[in-house]
Amino acid sequence: MKVLLVNPPQTFYPGSDLPSGNLPLGLMYIAAVLERDATKTEILDAFMTNVPVRKVGDTVEIGMTYEKIAEEIRMRKPDIVGISNPFTCQTQHAEKVAEIVKEIDRDVPTVVGGPHVSAVPDEFMAEAKNVDFAVMGEGEHTMLDIVKLTEGKVRAEQVQGIAYRKGDKIIVNQPRPFLTNLDDLPYPAYDLVDMELYLNPERIEYRSFKDRSISMITSRGCPFNCIFCAVHLHMGKAFRAHSVDYVVNHVKQVVDKYRVKTIFFEDDNMTFDLKRFDAICNRIINEKIKFKWETPNGIRADYLTLDLLKKMKRSGCQSVFFGVESGNQHVLDDIISKSLDLNAVTNVAKMCKDIGLNTAAFYIIGFPGENKEDMMKTVDFALKMKKDYDVGMLLHVATPSCGTRLYYQCKEKGYIQENLTPRAFAEVRQTRGNPLIGTEDFTPAEVKEIATMAMNRYQHIAMINYAKNPIKTLRAIFSQPKLVRKYIQSLRED
């Protein structure tokens, strides 16, 4: 039995930054588990390949052509093809890869997993006619069962966590319980991808990333209850984490074997278990593991202390990202269920500035229940954080991701203003993109206007801050040319 796991190409729409190129960790964990079970497994990394960027209309497509993907599948002769679908805005590529498989051999089962599939498995299967199995939630053990199913050792109705076809019907099985002991998982199958494509910036010209940097995930699940978050749908609410030993040894492996210099910890709740997190920092310091790290998915500001921040910096932390979402306490408490005190955010931002730790914060505007005044409070808070503590502003508009409470709330009240196409989901994530939500209190155009104004004001403040520091000014010119270009553009627009 041979399993081929495919990381499909991706499309980037006008205004999108080209990819930094994260490892296909989901596929790599599945591959490691399959190989441990003596199942021959290969990864076809059709996204992160050294191929020319292709213009398709007003979009940019990155990755192998479909013709090349078909050639690879014919050559590799898999018995099962598993396909990653990491983003709602990229579903068309997962569907196309499944179609290619069926054109080559109708008898090869096709399997698709990822957050979107987990959120709406029946809807996805109804649309993706060439997909035989949709995997909901964590895929490692589910894919093992699909191998057994293909071998005739189990029946489809016995496999938890899948949706499949039975005649003209789509059957959605019971969800699979989430893994409780993450240490039971082997390290991702780094040997099945070309690591130098991810680690060497000279290998991929369009990549903008730090030299020899990778992503790593040390925990899963989120016990909080934000209305816009889809993490619960594919990773659950219970916080589950690798042990301190597992994390530290994993870090050592990639630093020693692959000469990794920077790790992006992509956890949704890296600091939730403070005792564990503190112990990880201690081990890194005591064992003198030399690397830099960041938390690009954001961590909670109200879980941090000055002593811990100092320890984070000593262990290699370069910057801290906070999930703030709103600068209005009423919105946090009564609209999005964030359970965050803004005073804690301000206090931690001040501490970070005092010890020289870079910071940025995520903000979101355009939630049902907000009005324009509420949104402006978020903008004012974010700009004040930039002025006072040099906290970067990462501003987004609310996205009704499929399966979330926000999605069902908007759908019930008729707040979604256009068809939720892959392109619509991609563009709404851009500050200058097109918001999808409109209510009695605001239109999508008004949300876009506020977001554009906020970014113009932010860029002006950022350039003033750079001007106060000649070294930062030079860094902005040479290492952040996009910021300079945006600032010039904002002056023209004003």
Which SSEs are present, and which pair or pack?
Blueprint lengths: L1 E6 L2 E3 L12 H12 L3 E6 L8 E3 L2 E4 L3 H11 L3 E5 L6 H14 L5 E4 L1 H5 L1 H7 L5 E3 L4 H11 L11 E5 L2 E4 L22 H5 L13 E4 L2 E2 L10 H5 L4 E2 L2 H15 L3 E4 L8 H13 L5 E3 L11 H9 L2 E9 L3 H6 L7 H14 L2 E8 L6 H18 L1 E7 L7 H9 L8 H7 L15 H24 L2 H10 L1 H13 L1
Helix pairs in contact: 1-6, 2-3, 9-10, 10-11, 14-17, 17-18, 17-19
Task: Give a verbal description of the structure.
With 494 residues, the protein is α/β, with parallel strands linked by helices. The chain has two domains: 2-172, Rossmann fold, CATH 3.40.50.280; 210-493, pyruvate-formate lyase- activating enzyme (Alpha-Beta Horseshoe). It contains 19 helices and 18 strands. The protein has helices at residues 25-36, 66-76, 91-104, 115-119, 121-127, 140-150, 195-199, 231-235, 244-258, 274-286, 306-314, 329-334, 342-355, 372-389, 405-413, 422-428, 444-467, 470-479, 481-493; strands at residues 2-7, 10-12, 40-45, 54-56, 59-62, 80-84, 110-113, 133-135, 162-166, 169-172, 213-216, 219-220, 240-241, 262-265, 292-294, 317-325, 358-365, 391-397. It has a seven-stranded mixed beta sheet with strand order 3-1-6-7-8-9-10, sandwiched between helices. A six-stranded parallel beta sheet has the order 11-14-15-16-17-18. It has a three-stranded antiparallel beta sheet with strand order 2-5-4, with no helix packed on it. Strand 4 (54-56) and strand 5 form a beta hairpin. Helix 2 (66-76) crosses helix 3 (91-104), helix 10 runs parallel beside helix 11 and helix 17 packs across helix 19 (481-493). The longest helix is centred in the last third of the chain and has 24 residues, at 444-467. The chain starts with a strand and ends with a helix.
